[in-house]
Design a protein that fits this description.
- Strand 6, helix 8 and strand 7 form a beta-alpha-beta unit.
- The chain folds into two domains: 176 residues, Alpha-Beta Complex (Aspartate Aminotransferase, domain 1), CATH 3.90.1150.10; 231 residues, 3-Layer(aba) Sandwich (Aspartate Aminotransferase, domain 2), CATH 3.40.640.
- The chain has a seven-stranded mixed sheet, sandwiched between helices.
- The chain has 17 helices and 15 strands.
- The chain is α/β, with parallel strands linked by helices.
- It starts with 7 loop residues before the first helix and ends in an 8-residue tail after the last helix.
- It binds pyridoxal-5'-phosphate.
C-alpha cells in the first residue's frame, strides 16, 4: 500500500508547509471523485473490464513529516540515545505527554506492545501456575506476553458480530487458577467492558486491557486502557501511532505504574535498587523522538479515520453481503486500526470469500482477510503440552482439558468471514478514496452472478 508516484522528499516539503494531514490528503490523486463513478454493472476487471479504481494510490505510511525528521536528527546529534542518560530525553518526555493524553500522572514506555503486556503481567505478580483468559483472535504478542511469564493463556470464544471476546464464554473458562482477564480491543473498538468488569469483580480477577490497536478509543466516556487495572499499547509500524517498534503502559494506579517501571527496567526501581524479576524492555530515544514528532497531529488523524469509517458504514449500509463490525453500546469513541466487515457469502451467489477478494483486487482495491487462523489453531498449543514445567505447574488433567477446550467455532467463523481495509494510512485518504472502495465493492456486488466463474 505504498505510494508509487510521489517522492518522500516532495512529501516532506509539502507537509512542512501547512497542516500535515491536509497535505497528505491533497497529495493523493482523487481517482474516485464523483465524476469518476462508473456504471456498477460494467464488466468486472478480472473478466477484462475496466477497473473501478485504476492505479490506486493511498496515503503513505508510516506517517512522516518535517517535525518527525527534526526530532530524530536532534536526538542523533544530542548523543542522548538511551533513556537513562537524561530525565529530559525523548522517552521520559514522551511518557509525560502520553500520560497527559490519558489525563494521568505517568505512563511507562517499552520496546513493544508485547513487552508492555508482559510487563503488566509481571507487575501484577502473575506467573507460573496462573491462568489468564484472553482472545484467540489477536496478535501472537497477546498470548506470548502470558507464556513468557510461564502462565497459561486460556482462550474463550468470540461474539462473531463484534469479533470481541464473548463474556459468557469468558465466565465459563474461569477456574480456581484464573488470575486475570486480558480482553483485546480488536480493530481498535472497545470490548464489552461493562460485562468484563462485572465478571472480574465477581471472581476477584485483574483486568489487563490489550489496547494495542485502540489508542484514543473510549467506552462509556472513559479512555480504553484506563478501564481495567492496566492498559497496554503498541507503536509497531502498522499501528496508527508508531515508531517501528514500541509500546506503552497506562494506569490510574500509581503504585502499579511504579512496579511496571521497575519490571521494564531489568527489575531495577527508580531508586536504583534491583528489586525483582524483569527483562530489559526500555524504549530507546530514537523511538521516543519519532513518537514525539508524531504527537501533534495525532488527534486530527484519529478524527479523519473516524470520519472516513463513518462514511464507509453509511455508504454500504444497504449492502447485505458485508456486515460491518458490531460496536457495543458503550462505545463512545472508536479508534480505527482496521475497518472490517463479515463477508456473508449467501449474498454473493455463494461465492467463496477468496473469489470476492480477487475480484475487488482486480478493480484496484486490496482488501485483506486478516488473521488466517485463530491462535487456538497454532502449534504452540501442542508445544506447551510437551514442556515439563507446564505439566508440573498445571498437572496432566488440566493440560488435557486446556487442549480440549480449544474448539472455538465462533473464532473460526470470524477468520473465514473477515474482510478488512487497513486503516492507519488508507483511512487518512479523501472521501473520494472511500468512494473508490465502495465503488469497487458495489461493482462486484452487481456482478455477483459471475463470481463463481472467476
Ligand atoms: C500489535 C498488537 C500486539 C503486539 O504489539 P507489538 O508492538 O507488535 O509487540 C498485541 N496485541 C494486539 C491486539 C496487537 O494488535
Amino acid at each position: 500500500m505504498k505510494t508509487k508516484d510521489f517522492s518522500r522528499r516532495k512529501f516532506i516539503a509539502t507537509t512542512a508547509a501547512g497542516s500535515a494531514a491536509v497535505a497528505v490528503a491533497a497529495s493523493i490523486p482523487a481517482f474516485g471523485n464523483i465524476t469518476h463513478v462508473r456504471n456498477e454493472s460494467d464488466k468486472l476487471a478480472i473478466l477484462g473490464g475496466t477497473p473501478a479504481a485504476p492505479d490506486k494510490v493511498w496515503p503513505d505510511w508510516p506517517y512522516v513529516d518535517e517535525k518527525v525528521v527534526e526530532e530524530v536528527v536532534k536526538t542523533t546529534r544530542s548523543g542522548i540515545w538511551c533513556r537513562i542518560q537524561s530525565p529530559n530525553g525523548t522517552v521520559p518526555t514522551f511518557e509525560k505527554e502520553f500520560a497527559k493524553l490519558f489525563g494521568i500522572k505517568t505512563s511507562v514506555s517499552t520496546g513493544s506492545g508485547t513487552q508492555s503486556l508482559n510487563t503488566a503481567v509481571e507487575a501484577l505478580g502473575i506467573g507460573p501456575g496462573d491462568e489468564i483468559i484472553t482472545s484467540p483472535y489477536t496478535d501472537p504478542g497477546t498470548i506470548q506476553s502470558i507464556l513468557v511469564s510461564r502462565a497459561l493463556p486460556v482462550m474463550a470464544d468470540l461474539d462473531p458480530e463484534s469479533f470481541q471476546l464473548d463474556p459468557d464464554d469468558v465466565e465459563r473458562k474461569i477456574t480456581k487458577k484464573t488470575r486475570a482477564l486480558m480482553p483485546v480491543h480488536i480493530m481498535g473498538q472497545p470490548c464489552n467492558m461493562q460485562r468484563m468488569m462485572e465478571i472480574a469483580k465477581k471472581h476477584n480477577l485483574k483486568v489487563i486491557e490489550d489496547s494495542c490497536q485502540a489508542i484514543m478509543a473510549e467506552y462509556q466516556g472513559k479512555m480504553v486502557g484506563l478501564i481495567g487495572d492496566v492498559g497496554c499499547f503498541s507503536f509497531q509500524t502498522s499501528k496508527v501511532f508508531c515508531c517501528g517498534e514500541g509500546g506503552a503502559i497506562v494506569s490510574e494506579n500509581e503504585e502499579l505504574m511504579d512496579k511496571c517501571y521497575t519490571v521494564m527496567n531489568h527489575g531495577t526501581a527508580k531508586s536504583g535498587r534491583t528489586m525483582t524479576i524483569g527483562s530489559k524492555y526500555r524504549m530507546n530515544e530514537f523511538e521516543g523522538a519519532v513518537l514525539l514528532g508524531q504527537m501533534p497531529g495525532l488527534r486530527e488523524r484519529h478524527n479523519i479515520r473516524n470520519r472516513n469509517a463513518k462514511y464507509l458504514r453509511e455508504q454500504l449500509k444497504d449492502l447485505p453481503g458485508l456486515v460491518p463490525q458490531k460496536l457495543y453500546d458503550g462505545t463512545t469513541q472508536g479508534s480505527y486500526y482496521l475497518y472490517t466487515w463479515s463477508y456473508k457469502k449467501e449474498h454473493w451467489n455463494n461465492a467463496p470469500r477468496e473469489k470476492f477478494l480477487k475480484a475487488v483486487a482486480a478493480e484496484g482495491i486490496s482488501l485483506s482477510p486478516y488473521i488466517a487462523n485463530g491462535l487456538h489453531r497454532e502449534p504452540w498449543t501442542d508445544h506447551i503440552q510437551t514442556l515439563p514445567e507446564y505439566k508440573t505447574m498445571f498437572g496432566s488433567a488440566r493440560m488435557k482439558k486446556f487442549k480440549e477446550e480449544l474448539l472455538l467455532p465462533k473464532c473460526d467463523q470470524v477468520c473465514q468471514e473477515m474482510v478488512m481495509v487497513w486503516a492507519s494510512g488508507p483511512l487518512l485518504g479523501t472521501q473520494a478514496d472511500m468512494d473508490d472502495v465502495t465503488n469497487a465493492i458495489r461493482k462486484v456486488y452487481a456482478n455477483r452472478d459471475k463470481l463463481n466463474s472467476i
